[in-house]
Write a structure and sequence with these properties.
The structure holds two protein chains of two kinds.
Chain A: H1 7-17, H2 20-39, H3 43-48, H4 50-55
Chain B: H1 2-43, H2 51-67, H3 73-102, H4 112-132, E1 141-142, H5 146-175, H6 179-200, E2 205-206, H7 212-243, H8 249-258
Antiparallel strand pairs in B: 1-2
The chains are: A mainly alpha, B mainly alpha.
Keywords (chain A): Membrane, Transmembrane, Transmembrane helix
InterPro entries (chain A): CbtB_put
Protein name (chain A): CbtB-domain containing protein
């Protein structure tokens, strides 16, 4: 029972498999997507997503 | 391994996102279109079904109604469907990253873990913010400026994540002794969050001239559709994991112990 994996092990595995740069790239990409999708305030893009924002419960009128 | 998880997460997100895009096209777009008409109709007064409330909320309905017309309705409909698909992909990718790191800490065996994480994600991303900022209908009137509300939404997402983590931690600590008490322990942070927001949170969203039943139906639909999206992401991700031959750590350990 000593082989139980922990969250710490997973971080270690990720570190071994990927460079810090690759990890940062993955997280930065997800963060950028979130930002673009939800908080993009450029009026045309923002208004085009009007129905979507209502449907997912995120609006700002 | 991380990249494999991410790949399966994005694929699960594509499947869930397509389903959500279909929901946007068939349900949300027409419904919101109708609700826009109700909101705008009430502004013009007594012939609208919600006429008696129109004078109080008319101005705001007007503002909200006008806001939507910077682009054509067809563009809004198409972009909203596309955004729905992207939303599924985003959730799928984020889900897979979180699952990769937190899988060892999640309670349950096998695919149960994916649903626990999906529940936690739903609580953090949607439910917790909605306790303060409920899903808004067209023509609704909202307190504070958008920047503050965005910050509030993000803050409530963080609170939701902490509550979900607390709930899972509590369950893991207690369930080794008794599973029912574990479930009760897991419920405590969530019930506390709901109780505190019900008592303390100010009313930020006023529904305006929209009939209350329509607002309730819309909010119910929003909650259910988001829950379904998370369930679909978790379900597809679990299926893809099984298909790829990934088995939970516990099973692999059993194999190691039993193999000669």
């Amino acid at each position: 029972m000593t082989t139980t994996e922990t969250v710490h092990d997973r971080i270690g595995t990720a570190r071994d498999e990927l460079t810090t740069g690759q990890l940062l790239a993955v997280f930065a990409f997800v963060a950028a997507l979130t930002f673009a999708l939800l908080f993009l305030q450029e009026p045309l893009a923002h208004d085009s997503m009007h129905n979507f924002r209502h449907a997912v419960g995120v609006t700002c009128h | 391994m991380l990249v494999d998880y991410l790949e399966r997460g994005v694929l699960a997100g594509v499947i869930a996102g397509l389903a959500y895009g279909l929901y946007m096209a068939l349900v949300a777009n027409p419904l919101l279109g109708y609700m826009e008409t109700v909101a705008e109709g009430s502004e013009h007064g007594d012939h609208a079904s919600a006429g008696e409330h129109a004078h109080a909320a008319g101005e705001h309905a007007h503002e909200a109604g006008e806001h939507a017309h910077a682009v054509s309705e067809a563009t809004t409909a198409a972009v909203s469907i596309g955004s729905g698909v992207l939303w599924g992909i985003l959730l799928g990718g984020a889900f897979a990253l979180a699952f990769y790191f937190f899988e060892p800490a999640l309670p349950g065996r096998g695919r149960v873990k994916t649903y626990v994480l999906a529940g936690a994600g739903f609580l953090a991303v949607s439910l917790a913010p909605w306790l303060v900022l409920p899903p808004t209908t067209p023509g609704a009137e909202q307190a504070f400026d958008p920047t503050f509300r965005s910050a509030l939404y993000a803050g409530m997402m963080a609170v939701g994540a902490v509550v979900a983590a607390g709930s899972i931690y509590g369950y893991r600590r207690v369930s080794t002794r008794s599973r029912p008490i574990g479930v009760v322990t897991a419920a405590v942070p969530i019930v506390a969050l709901v109780a505190i927001t019900v008592v303390a949170a100010p009313t930020i969203v006023e529904i305006g001239a929209m009939p209350a039943e329509l607002v309730a139906a819309f909010r119910g639909l929003t909650v259910l559709s988001q829950a379904a999206l998370w369930a679909l992401v978790a379900g597809c991700f679990g299926w893809l994991q099984t298909r790829a031959g990934v088995r939970p750590a516990a099973e692999r350990r059993d194999d190691l112990l039993t193999s000669p």
